[in-house]
Design a protein that fits this description.
Helix content: 55-70%
Number of strands: 0
Shape: globular
Number of helices: 3
Order of helices and strands: HHH
Largest sheet: none
């Protein structure tokens, strides 16, 4: 993953939409990117445990 907001956004969208049961429109993607960057202390979102990523995503589900 590159070191940019855009590539991080693409990564998050791909993860959210991978199973086909949700779309980017179901989540606040920008908030997930910001929180993930803070947790990862950088752009290496692959270093975040999957469970942690999904906890972050669940906190930013649009209702």
């Amino acid at each position: 993953m590159s070191d940019s907001w855009e590539s991080a956004t693409e990564y998050v969208i791909a993860a959210l939409e991978a199973k086909g049961s949700a779309t980017r429109d179901d989540f606040d993607v920008a908030a997930i990117v910001a929180a993930s960057r803070e947790i990862a202390d950088g752009w290496d979102f692959g270093a975040i445990e999957r469970a942690t990523f999904w906890r972050i995503a669940s906190c930013h589900l649009k209702v």
